[in-house]
Design brief:
The complex is a heterodimer of chains A (57) and B (255).
Chain A (H helix, E strand, L loop, with lengths): L6 H33 L4 H12 L2
Chain B lengths: L6 H33 L13 H28 L4 H31 L7 H22 L3 H15 L2 H11 L19 H49 L2 H4 L6
The chains are: A mainly alpha (57), B mainly alpha (255).
């Protein structure tokens, strides 16, 4: 497998795919953590009211 | 379906589904990678380079599939006014851009050893590049328009207009004389690929699709929380503004 003259292209393609997929996962998880942190600064009563307002038509 | 229009119900559903979807995705990705690297044979002409196909083709399918999901969500926003449709559309755009970028980069890395060029202005490659630019434009549109309602409508209309590119991508290899090969899996007469290569490809495609489903659910959850944060911030700002009346800000009569 590694003796193929173009094996480097295969390895680079998989490495880039790994970076892109890991980047997507980390970006979404970081965004979630930032949002949760920002929401936790508001009083629980206000958060409940906001949730109920979302459900209203 | 209407039941999940309630963001709180949707968040509960996401909380239950996400761990199972993530575990299934990880298992399928491991299986797909094992099959792609250690079971699938090298191509008689392309040698080991064919292993790029197991990334490139699923990413290419997903780049179009995500746009179809976004088009459905755009219809949901404009026609049915589903409360989560614009969140679904907004959450899908960066994922679509990432998978399209992966498709372009892996295609380029496959093209260099096979065609002798990193890039050619061939109809298939160019139409996929246009798709990537549409995804970026949509992400930029959401960031540019401050009012979320206006941004959702503008993005929905833009998405519907951009949907014309999807059949162009699919049939570009039939309508024009291209360097890119024609369809070899979804074609009349059945797949043209040997079973030993087709199965790893289908498993990788399923793994990528589940990966998108998992990330999309998580990103929609983030959009719901972002809306909630925006609503709370506006309420807090309104409350602060009502306390800060001109009378309370007065320095009192001059002495």
């Amino acid at each position: 497998m590694t003796s193929d003259p173009h094996f480097g292209f295969v390895v680079v393609a998989y490495a880039i795919a790994f970076v892109i997929i890991a980047g997507m996962i980390l970006a979404i998880l970081r965004d979630y953590s930032t949002l949760r942190q920002a929401l936790s600064r508001f009083p629980a009563g206000d958060r409940r009211a906001a949730r109920e307002a979302e459900a209203a038509p | 379906m209407r039941n999940y229009a309630n963001p709180s119900n949707f968040l509960r559903l996401t909380g239950v589904l996400t761990p199972y979807l993530a575990a299934l995705t990880a298992a399928l990705l491991c299986l797909g990678l094992y099959l792609a690297w250690f079971v699938a044979p090298p191509d008689y002409q392309q040698g080991e380079t064919v292993r790029i196909m197991y990334l490139h083709v699923p990413a290419a399918w997903l780049s179009m599939w995500i746009y179809i999901v976004m088009t459905s969500a755009a219809l949901g926003t404009l026609v049915w006014r589903h409360p989560l449709a614009d969140a679904a559309q907004k959450a899908a755009a960066p994922l679509g851009a990432a998978f399209t970028f992966l498709c372009l980069v892996t295609g380029s890395l496959w093209g260099k050893p096979m065609w002798g060029a990193w890039w050619v202005w061939d109809a298939r490659l160019t139409s996929v590049l246009v798709l990537f630019l549409i995804y970026l434009a949509l992400v930029a549109l959401w960031r540019t328009i401050e009012d979320p309602g206006k941004a959702a409508r503008a993005a929905a209309i833009f998405t519907l207009v951009g949907a014309i590119n999807i059949p162009i991508i699919k049939f570009s290899v039939d309508w024009w004389n291209t360097l890119h090969q024609p369809a070899s899996v979804f074609r009349l007469g059945g797949p043209a690929i040997a079973g030993s290569m087709l199965w790893p490809l289908l498993i990788m495609a399923l793994a990528f699709t589940l990966l998108f489903a998992t990330l999309h659910l998580m990103a929609i959850r983030n959009e719901i929380l972002r809306r909630r944060l925006r609503r709370l911030s506006i309420l807090a700002a309104d409350a602060a503004a009502s306390e800060f009346t001109p009378a309370s800000a007065s320095l009192g009569p001059a002495r």
